[in-house]
Amino acid sequence: MNPRTFAILAVAAASLSACIIIDADESDRDNFHVVTQFGLPHMQSVSIGQGAVTVEIPGACATKKNVEAEVDKDGRREYEIGIEYKAPDFCNEDSPGLAQLSWTYDELGIPHESTVRVLNKIAR
Q: For a designed S-S bond to 102, which of 28, 54, 73, 76 qualifies (C-beta 3.0 to 4.6 A apart)?
């Protein structure tokens, strides 16, 4: 192979490698970049659908009055959501029932057709 062909292939390989993203730290997603004053709720489930994010939190007393979704823009049309308490949680999470909370993309300021992920850990 002549040196010019090798140089072209090396540059092409280097430029293609910039497109590869490896997120090897999946278990640390509950470490937000902000200090949470009242803590993070435990998630029973998360559903990211067409235009809405829905979470289920153990204990039936969590509401949007004491739980909020904080949104960080991660890149072009990529958004990360952290669900956190904005007021103290006086409900025992072992109490029967699940609180189901939903936020629309419009409420969160997220354009439709975006990549969205929730950072909280999910109970397994």
A: 54
Model pLDDT for residues 73-92, shown as the tens digit of each residue: 877 889 999 999 888 777 76
- Side chain identity at 30, as an amino acid letter? D
pTM to 2 decimals? Answer: 0.67
Which residues, at least 6 apart from 2, have a Cβ–Cβ distance to it below 8 Å?
A: none
Q: What is the pLDDT of residues 26-66, one digit of tens each?
A: 444 444 555 567 778 888 999 998 899 999 988 778 889 88
DSSP per residue, 55-120: EEEEBTT--TTTEEEEEEEEETTEEEEEEEESS---S-TTSSSEEEEEEEHHHHT--TT-EEEE-S
What is the rounded CA–CA span in Å between residue 4 and residue 2? 6
